[in-house]
Amino acid sequence: MRRHQGLKAAAAAVIATGMIVTFPSMAFAQDGKSATELSGHGAAQRIATTGVTSKAKNVILFIGDGMGDSEITVARDYLKGASGSFDGLDSIGQPGALTSNGEAATGQYTTYSLGSGSKDAGNPVVTPVTDSAASGSGWATGTKTYNNAVDVDVNQNAQLNLIELAKAKGLATGNVTTAEIQDATPAVLESHSTQRSCYGPQGKTDGTSDNSAKNCDASQLKQNGGIGSISEQLLDTRADVTIGGGSKYFKQTAQAGTYKGTTLWEQATERGYQTVSNDVDAFSKLTYKKNSPVLALLSDGNMPTQYDTTPALSQKATEERGAVTCSTSSSWLGNKTASGNSASLADMTDKAIDLLQSQVGDTSTSTSGFFLQVEGASIDKQDHAANACGQIGETDDLDKAISAAVAKLKTRGELDDTLIIVTADHAHTSQIVSEPPAYALSTILKSPVDGSTIVVSYGTATSVDSGADDASVGYTAGGMEHTGTQLRIAASGPGADRVTGLTDQTDNFYTIAKALGLASTTSEQKALSDSGKVAVKKKSDGSVSAEVTGFDGDSVLSYTLKDSTGTILATTDSSAKSANAISGVQGVRVATAQTTDIALDGVESGATGYTLSVTGKQSGKTVTVSFDGPAADGSTTTSGDVAKKGGKEAASTLATGKVAEQPSAATGVATLLGRTGSAVLGVVAAVAALALAGGIAVAARRGLFTR
Ligand code: MG
Ligand code: ZN
User: Would you name the residues annotated as active-site residues?
Assistant: First the structure.
C-alpha cells in the first residue's frame, strides 16, 4: 500500500513538473497524429519500415465486407459449432494449415477514416468508423480518405490502386464480388470517384432515367470534362476478370466521349470484352481468350444471398419466435441451374483463378502472375438488415470461396507462390449475447452442429428498414451500422509475416504491393510515368487525336491544346472552366498499360503551329508536342492505313523518344521541347507526322476518351 502510494506520488511529481519519462516497457507507445498528418499517401502506416521476407507470384485478397470478429464467430458457432473451424476462413493465417513450411500470420488492423463524407474533403477529421469506400481506398491505395471517397484522397486527388499498379507491372488482374460491381469495395479497384454513388453516366439507374446530378459530382462527368463514372472507368481500367452484380447499370448510355449514345454493355463489347449478363450458364462456359477481358455481371443489383432472411425482432417477439435455423434461398445463384451450373462465390473464385492462370500460362503474353480481389459483400449488407441467417450464409459463401481458391492453387501448383490474405473492411453491429436484450433487436439461433443456442443482438437502431438489402435503396437506408473496432487480418504464403501484430488498413496496401514488387511509394509510382509518350495522329476517319502511352504512374491526365497564336482550343484545366470544379477528377482517365486517346477537337487541316501539353496529374510529368494540322491538299490515303503498312510508322517511332536524334522524314516537324514538370524526367517531345489530308477541317466533336 505504501509503495503504491509512493508510485502515485512520483507520477504526480512527473506530471506536475512536466517531465517526460520513458519507461522501457512503454517504448512502443505513441500518440496518434492529426488528420492532416495522416492524409498523405502512406502516412497512416504502422509498419512502414517493415519489408517482406519473400516475394509472391500471385496475391489473392479476400474481403469479407463487415466481417468483424463478431460476424466470424456468429457464423462459426452456427455452422461449425463453437469448437469447430472453417475450412477456408480459419485456415488462412494458421501455421501449418495450408503448407507445412509456408509463412502464416495473423494480426489486427485499425480502420478509421478521415471524414464522414465529402463535406470533410479538404478539412480532414479523424473519424473512428469507416465506410467501405474509405476503407477500400485505404487497402487499395495506401492512402486514408473520407467516407464516401473512392481512391481519391482528402483533397479529392486520385490515388493509384492495386489493379492499376499490378497492370503497370504486367500482372493479370481480377475483381470478384457478390455486390454490384460499382459498389465501394470492387469500385476501389476500378475507379476514382469523389462519390461512391457515381455508378454510371446516368447515375444510379437502369438507363431509363438519369439521376447523375444527385449521385455524381458534376466535375467528374464526361460531358463536363471529367474522368467519368465508376462503370465507365471500370471499362478503362480493363481488369482481365471482372465478376459481380450490378448488370442493370450497364444499360445506361454514355453521355459524352467516344462512346456517346451507346450503352455501357455495347461499349464493353466494342472494346473487346467477353460479356455475360445475368446468365449463370454462360458464365460457367467462359474461357480465357487473349485480349478479351471477362465482364460477367450475374444479377441486376447485389446478388441474392444464400440464406433466407430472419430479421431480428424486439425482445418479446424474439422470445415468442424462439430459436430459428437457416434455410437456403431459392434465388441464390449457388443453386444449380437446369444445366447443372452455379455461381456461388466459390464458383466465381474458381472461374477467376482459371481465367487468370490461363493468361499467366499464355506464353505469348508476358504476364508473370496475378492479383485478385474476392469480396463477400453481403455479410455487411445482411448485418445492416439485422439478418443473422443472411450474414451467416454470406460468411459461409466466403469461407467456401477461400477453400475453392486453395484447392485450385494446389491443383495448379501455385499455392506456395501465392500470398492469400483474408480480412474485412470494417466491423459491424452484430454481437453474441446471453439473452435477448431489452433495448435492442435480436435473433435466437440453434446451431445444427453442436445444438447450442446462439443469441445475436443488433443494437444500433430501434427498427430494421426492410429495404436495407435492396440494391435500389442502398445500405444507407438500413438500420444497423458499422462499428469502429479493429479487425482480424490473416495471411498465408510469401509475405504473410507482414500482417503480424497491430497494423493499419493502409499497411495492407503495402503488404500486397511489396509482395508483388509493385510501385508503392509516391516516388516509385511517379517513376512509372518516366516512359510517358504522346503521339498525335490523324485517324482514318479524319479526326485528330493524341495517343498517350507509358503514363502508368498516373490515373488522370490533364492537357492543353493551343493554336499558333497561343489561344487555348481545349483544356482540362478546371480553373479555366468553373471556380467550383473539382480539379482532381477533371481530365482524361488513364488506361493503365494501354493506349489512352485524347480527341483533339479544333485542329484544322492546313493550319500550323499547334502545341499540345499532356501532364500526368499524379506524376507531374509532362509531354509537350508541337504539330501542324493535316495537310489540306486532299491526299487520299489515311494515316491509319499507312501506319498499318509501316509507311508512316515514324509518328509512333518518334514518340518513343527518338525524335531528337532522328527527325521524322514525314511532313511534320520534329521538335524537342524539353522538360517541364518534374525534375526527375523530361519526357521527349514528339511531333507526329500528319502528312496526309483527309478533307475534314475540324474533327467531329467527340470529347475525351480512352480505350
Ligand atoms: Mg463491399
Ligand atoms: Zn456497410
Answer: 132
Based on the number of CB atoms within 10 Å of its own CB, is 83 exposed (0-12), middle (13-18) or buried (19 or more)? exposed
Instruction: Tell me the CA–centroid distance for residue 193 and ligand 2, in Å.
Output: 18
In this predicted structure, the answer to whether residue 616 has a pLDDT above a threshold of 60 is yes
pLDDT of residue 573: 74
Tell me the ligand closest to 460's alpha carbon.
Answer: 2
- For residues 26-50, one letter each, b for 16 or more C-beta atoms within 10 angstroms of the residue's C-beta and e for the rest, the string is eeeeeeeeebeebbebbbbbbbeeb
Residue 141 in contact with residue 188, Cβ under 8 Å? yes
Strands annotated E in 447-532: 453-458, 487-492, 501-504
187 alpha carbon, closest ligand: 1
Report if pTM > 0.85.
yes
In 3-state terms, what secondary structure has residue 135? helix
pLDDT at residue 683 above 50?
Answer: no
Looking at the DSSP bridge assignments, the partners of residue 431 are 457
Q: Report DSSP letters for 202-251, one per residue.
A: TBSSSSSS--HHHHS-GGGSGGGTB---HHHHHHHH--SEEEEE-GGGGG
Dist. CA 425–CA 380, nearest whole Å: 10
Grid cell 499558333 is found at 564
Cα of 111 from ligand 1 centre, angstroms: 14
Q: What is the CATH number of domain 58-520?
A: 3.40.720.10
CB-based neighbours (< 5 A) of ligand 1, an ion:
65, 132, 185, 377
With contact defined as beta carbons under 8 Å apart, do 454 and 432 qualify? yes
Residue that the C-alpha cell 508536342 belongs to: 625
* Helix, coil or strand: residue 658: helix
647 class by beta-carbon count within 10 Å (0-12 exposed, 13-18 middle, 19+ buried) = middle
* DSSP bridge partners of 243: 176, 296
Tell me how far apart the alpha carbons of residues 172 and 370 are, in angstroms, rounded to a whole number: 4
- Please say if the pLDDT value at position 513 is more than 90: yes
Tell me, rounded to whole angstroms, the distance of Cα 350 from its chain centroid.
21
What are the C-alpha distances in Å from 300 to residues 273, 406, 471? 19, 29, 9
Cβ pair 501, 510 in contact under 8 A: no
User: What SS3 state is found at 640?
Assistant: helix
C-alpha distances (whole Å) from 339 to each of 47, 299, 342 are 50, 18, 9
Distances, alpha carbon 184 to alpha carbons 132, 155, 190, 423, 482, in Å? 6, 19, 10, 16, 14
Q: What is the SS3 assignment for 200?
A: strand
Helix and strand numbers (H, E) in the chain are 18, 21
Ligand 1 mean position to 82 CA, how many Å? Answer: 27
587: left (phi over 0), alpha (psi -120 to 50) or beta: left
How far does the centroid of ligand 1 lie from the alpha carbon of residue 522, in Å? Answer: 27
Is the pLDDT at 279 greater than 70? The verdict is yes
pLDDT level of residue 334 (50, 70, 90 thresholds): very high
Coil, strand or helix at 301: coil
Residue 478: per-residue pLDDT = 52
pLDDT given for residue 466 in this prediction:
56
